[in-house]
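Researcher: First entry.
Model:
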Amino acid sequence: MSRTQAVRVAMPAALGAVVALVAVAVLAGAVLPRGVLAGTGRGNVPSLPSDLSAVPLGTPVRPPVGDGGYAVLATQPGTGEAVGWDPCRPLTYVVNPASAPAGGAYLLGEAIAVIQAATGLLVVDAGTTGEPPDEVRPPLLRERYGDRWAPVLVAWSDPVTSPRLAGDVAGYAGPSTMQGTDPGTLHYVSGQVVLDGPQLAEMAAGPAGLARVRAVLVHELGHLVGLDHVDDPGQLMYPATTPLVVDLADGDLRGLAAVSGRPCRTDF
């Protein structure tokens, strides 16, 4: 199951131009049931990494004061704590560059650095892939990636390859969630970010273009690590972004802190 929400990107009136509205969306995957005991390498749970760290690999940025709002994609039943990624393992990703715009790799690297610094997650580039985006992409793809959670797929795509990018949708993203046997063990283990390369290339060529594209990428990566849209227009996670808000604001940073600092996982 998934749900889609859109954010519009418009030029400020001071620029005196009318431009197309651009939407980016969040794709929230269904919770996957735990199929077998962790470490067996069977079913829908891979073996635990041999070099699993017992402590977080980084430290989230201290959230700033302010009154900006934030929302998270999921919370633990019973406690209301935000669901997040395991901070004791690298968040690895692969890139399908099929429809990447000029400079896309550089802007993606900048956006990832922003999210990595804010969350304390160690985000690792695992190279390129020919894997196409898939709205029902499973988090375990042993034939392609071996006995591990599939790395996050970042796919530069287009509306023909990814029909959800039709019209004004510039991208969509979301994590895959795993449920353990004990309460409070919901956890993100994989996911994907799908970006409309041609549309973002057109955006990059316009006024404040590179900043606008980078903002879209940071926004989508925010969804990947667990943030939802908010109704606060001063935040980057607001559904209608403009060149006036191209960086993470106070609410965004508090939200990223909320989805960070989760317990280390040793069960799956």
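Researcher: Second entry.
Model:
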Amino acid sequence: MKLLKSLMTVSAMVCCVVYGAVFGQDDSLVPDPVKSATTEKSGTSTGVKNDDQGLSFKIHGWGSFELGQLYNGHGPVDRQFQHVWRQRVYSNLEADLTINDRYHMVISPELRLYYPYPINLTDPMERDLKAKYDAYLNETYFGVNIGDLANPVMSVKVGYFKYKYNPDVRDLGEYMFRSQCYPDYIYNIFDQAYARLLGVQVSSDLFDSLWHQDLIINSETFFYPREDFALTYLTSLNLFKGFLTIGGGISGSHLFPVDPNLTTPQDASTNMYQKNRRLVVTPNAAGGNDTAVAFDSTYYSFTGTKVMGRFCIDPKAFFRDSKLFGPNDLRLYGEFCVLGWDNIVNEDPDTSLLKHPYENRNQRIPFMLGFNFPGFNFIDVISAEVQFWDNPFANEFYDARKVYVPQHYNSNGWGPDLNENTKWSIYIKKSFMGHFAATLAFARDNVFDLDETDYGPNVDFEETYRYHSDWYWRFKVEGSF
């Protein structure tokens, strides 16, 4: 609770800065300079510009085809899968509108083709035997910059937008918006190391972009209970001419519940824990005393405080004129995140681990470390990332998504082996001809690779790559205009 109070204090201070900047500056409004959270757009854009009205309209687009193999993984009830072919197709179109060099608007729908697995042969309609198609919003938001055209004081986004605070992360990391606390779990998607947020983002760059700040209020769209509002503050400092970047953030997850009964279920049979356990002595009719155990009953909640820290060291800051290395080469970076700051102590004498899931903060802190090997201006990125998470529970959200209570479903995974606490990822990307790119990856990460888009018998609420022998590879080609 102290951290939440601190978060509110910091947010209030930032709001004061925002208020002063908005109402203390000239009313010049310019297009939003905040770059997309995804891979940089390659190629050119197509559009028209009307100089009389100051209106410009651009169309961007891209498509990708990814294929690969689940070499070894696990599904429902710890069923093992080997050599499973996986492939997806994505297609995206983005309309980018700027009016009078003041306002900025993006509308971007996206299509996906994918193949559910495992096939549900008990389905009389045999819907799993053919490819499935999804149409959804990639982004749609309104943006505005405030202040001097050459050096805006801040930018504001309102709508549904991509967000990425750690530019180096290719797979592991980016925990703040790709995780949940109480229960703590991490959810990744291949080659999408960012989050989509619905809400408001206020950003500020000070001292020639040496200090960056983001204040975000977003409504939950993915993690249950959905529609709850979170408040997040993130900041980063660029030091020693770019040699060292440090950053951090604090977030009140599900801080403002839409339905408190969903966020903190009042269910004594599934979601209650004991505190202030004590002996109560009362006189009896025989002149003696009776003793009984009493305790206060309270309930677990999805609400929690996340605390994140990160760093990046780039030795190229001391030899910028060298043409030997590419912009991503030699960067060493890392990140940690506390998935729920408060320890919740259950005084129930039952020693079962599932009765005491949140009493050790160290078990709720994933760490990751990454390094970019030299690509020598030929390969864009050659990254290797590792993650360690001393978590005695499976990385799963069964209770959160199917029983709707903020507790873990199982400990130590399924079966006799422990869930593998160490993850790894190798990511290689090459751009060519200005419009195309190819990506190759090998990983044992936090991906839920088997189909969990429906609530049928094939649904799995636990990550696919659980044990030391589990891993996959993917190859992806994409083009853009």
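Model: Note on the second entry: DSSP finds three helices and 22 strands in the chain.
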